[in-house]
Amino acid sequence: MSRETTLDKIVSLAKRRGFVFPGSEIYGGFAGTYDWGPLGVELRRNVVDTWLRAMKCHDNIAQLDSSIFTAPRVWEASGHVSGFNDPLVVCLSCHSKLRADHLLEAVGVVADEKMSEEELNRLFDGAREKVHCPVCSKQKFGRVVQKNLMATSTLGKFSDEDEEVYLRAETAQGIFINYKNVLDSGFYSIPFGIAQVGKAFRNEISPRQFLFRKREFEQMEMQYFVSPVEAPHAYEEWRKERFAYYDLLGITQEKLQWKRHENLVFYAKDAWDIQYEYPFGWSELEGVHYRGDYDLSQHQKFSGVDMSYLDPDTKDRYIPHVIETSVGVDRTVLMVLCESYSEDEMNGEKRVVLRLHPRMAPVKAAVFPLLKNKPDLVSKAREVYAMLKKSEPRVMWDDNGNIGKRYRRQDEIGTPVCITIDFQTLEDGSVTVRSRDTGEQIRVASSELPKLIGS
Ligand code: ATP
Q1: Could you tell which of 113, 324, 331, 332 is best to mutate to test the pocket of ligand 1, judged by most ligand atoms within 8 Å of the CB?
Q2: InterPro entries under this entry (predicted)?
């Protein structure tokens, strides 16, 4: 199967079965936005729950839910207003708006994030002969211009002089500005972390690759506040933990790799990304970065609030260093879909199957009456379904079409087991349980089902 077609097939399955719909579809779509469908909501929630659970295993990780709108000064302090830019270049033949750094990367030229517009233009001019537009293949481009990625809003804009407000470009700043509040609540001391899951917004120049690059997306971020002395060791520990974490999602380790940032932003002490091998190549899934004391120092400078910490034992006063782990919900969902999508043959029939880890499966089990027109079977099946639903709400009722069709449909959405209520159930209470991965069928007592589906 070619790499491109795999992604196309996943996009089509996601829409067909109700995982992900293109945003504003009936109005022709709206670039960089997608809507979660019924199964996507569950899959997304499984991703978030697994992440939160892993964070909550630590007794020194606090949770936070900060607002999307924040005082504009926050983004001045963080450096986003002045420096959160991507280089835009327009194809003069087809008018596509493109990322100049991505075009350069495709021909083996690395653009440094810190480059000025002039430097970028010099670099681009030097490579013009090799660069082709990925949309129309032509080679005519305009000048490279730096575009700020912050999405703005008119919230509270009652006169033209009012300043612009920003929708948050990352959830991290909400954590930094609340670091003191969490500390002062009295339950945490250095080292401790703050974990947050929430929406972020970026004016991406070319949103693409389905859920990979959206304009409205969701992040799961944890900022760990630690003394400068302990920070390097803590960084190594967090790097190890975050890489191993993906086992919980059923991701094969060979499809993950570390990539170190070549050009560190001036404040970062070290920065590594975890990359996943998506159908379009190795790309960033998560950043695990050692940010030094930059963020808290900046907020101290701009707000005038003292961000230092007095160590109760050593009496040392310092601004804590920050280790950041930051991963997108959307990129995780896309990875989980790519990892699990497969096509095979079962009983001589071709099928599409999502081999999701049971923890990720949006539907944990489907319950079928063997025949829809036999009231005894239907009522027994309803009884089993109601019993299961009480302990695990993520079970699905399906009586539409023949059993084979129902299996195919459940395979496509990754349901680990299908439970069929047949004539023998009426006699001895046992049911048929069919495995998604092997097709194997076993008979079990219906009382065993809650344990079997892990509820
Ligand atoms: P990229 O280089 O791919 O643009 P980034 O380095 O700007 O990503 P970060 O600012 O480190 O990304 O954001 C942390 C995480 O948030 C990323 O690792 C990714 O999982 C997710 N993320 C960032 N931008 C987007 C986006 N536009 N759409 C979906 N997820 C995103």
Answers
A1: 331
A2: aa-tRNA-synt_IIb, aa-tRNA-synth_II, aa-tRNA-synth_II/BPL/LPL, Anticodon-bd, Anticodon-bd_dom_sf, Gly-tRNA_synthase/POLG2, GlyRS-like_core, tRNA-synt_gly
User: For ligand 1, atom 15, which residue shows the shortest CA distance?
Assistant: 327
Contact yes or no for 234/224 (Cβ under 8 A): yes
What class has domain 4-79+150-336?
alpha beta
- Report, as ranges of residue numbers, the positions in the chain whose pLDDT lies below 70: 1-4, 455
The Cα–Cα gap between 397 and 399 comes to 7
| Distance (Å) from CA 32 to ligand 1 centroid | 13
CATH of span 84-146: 3.30.40.230
Per-residue pLDDT reduced to its tens digit, 380-395:
999 999 999 999 999 9
Global pTM exceeds 0.85 = yes
Give the helix, strand, coil percentages of the chain, each rounded to 5: 35, 30, 35
- Taking Cα atoms as reference points, which of 11, 30, 19 lies closest to residue 278? 11
- The secondary structure element, H or E, covering residue 321 is strand 321-328
Tell me, in angstroms, the distance from the centre of ligand 1 to residue 212's CA: 8
Q: Is the CB of 214 under 6 A from ligand 1?
A: yes
pLDDT in tens, 342-397: 999 998 889 999 999 999 999 999 999 999 999 999 999 999 999 999 999 999 99
CA 413/CA 15 separation, integer angstroms: 11
Is the CB–ligand 1 distance for residue 328 below 6 Å? yes
| Neighbour tally for 281: CB within 10 Å | 10
Report the atom number in ligand 1 closest to the C-alpha of 207: 27
Ligand 1 in reach of 331 Cβ (< 6 A): yes
Atom of ligand 1 nearest to the CA of 215: 27
- CA of 328 from ligand 1 middle (Å) equals 7
Q: Which helix (H) or strand (E) holds 430?
A: strand 430-435
- Does residue 168 have its Cβ closer than 6 Å to ligand 1? no
Short-list 360, 442, 430, 440, CA closest to 394? 360
Distance 335 CA to ligand 1 centre (A): 14
The DSSP bridge partners found for residue 223 are 194, 324
CATH of domain 362-452: 3.40.50.800
Q: Which helix (H) or strand (E) holds 336?
A: helix 329-340
Whether the CB of 291 sits within 6 Å of ligand 1: no
Mutate which of 205, 216, 219 for ligand 1 pocket (most atoms within 8 A of beta carbon)? 219
Ligand 1 atom closest to 202 (CA): 27
Domain boundaries, the chain: 4-79+150-336, 84-146, 362-452
Residue 145, CA distances (Å) to 96, 125, 148, 202 in order? 14, 13, 10, 17
